[in-house]
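Students often ask what a 'structure token' actually looks like in practice. Rather than answer in the abstract, let us consider Integrase, a protein of 321 residues. Its sequence is given first.
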Amino acid sequence: MRVPAATKSELLDLLDAALEAGWTLRSACRALELPERRARRWLRRREVGRLTDATPGGGPVHGILDEEREAILALFEQWGELDRSHRRLAHRGSYLGLFWVSPSTVRRVLVLADKHFRPLPRPPKGERRPFPEWADYAPNSIWIYDSTHLTRCGMTVLIIEDLVSRKWVHHVVSVEETHTQVQLAFTQALQAEGLYDAALERAQALTEAGLLDPDHDDGASPILLAVSDNGSQMIARDTRKFMAMLAIAQHFGRPSTPTDQAWIESLNGTIKLEWPHLLQIDDPAVLRAELDLVRAQYNSVRLHSGIGYVTPDDEHEGRGE
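Now compare that with the structural description of the same chain:
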């Protein structure tokens, strides 16, 4: 254990006083609970004025040279605004033939010199786009969907939720996240809710009237609103065409703003929190069976705080008032 120089000096003064009083060095060290060998070493170091301990480690043979340290600092001043990373700056130094050191060495030199990269300014968040006026705040008017991952099983679960009633409408378990899963989920969800035929009829009527173009979702008289984030499977061209063919309008949240999809994010978190055994399942067939049971319990048994502590089924069917 390292001892401060001031403490060493006070102990040696006590030793000097004991020796002057006739004590032997060994007796004095025993009384002070100080090893005699350490006391003799301190006495020798006091004679040459070196009571303060040296910095540990000494001079490592792999340490960088002063000129290398200066080159790192000079390169930071020249390229820091462009590279903005100690890793990139380390490679920049070798690329220019100025020095060859590890990124951690560059970082250490910059920290000791109190040099820091200026972080890139974060782009301002835009205002949240409101839902269209035609979207009624009633069940089967606004659906929200997202994917959540169950990594132990290696599966992705795409879940559709009714934003108003909080009903877990449908889900699809798959190893992929593409427009195919989106189309399958919405097709089965519309069939389960008895809306599929109505959606086809609405789309057919709009097509005959020249109001619906499969390559351009004009949002005319949609049967419902599908809310999601900007995932690749949500914004895919095939997904857009599929939604248009069923007269479903799409509504996207702001990029990197999960709170715009707070309803489905909350559902995903609740599933993993209240049914943690799902995270331990490694068999896809077992996972599908368990999710069906959890969905039934979530919809018909669990009281939801967001809809006045009734079940989503009650709210969806109008029994929650």
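One point worth highlighting: The chain has three domains: 5-47, 66-112, 142-316. Ask yourself how you might have guessed this from the sequence alone, and why that guess would often be unreliable.
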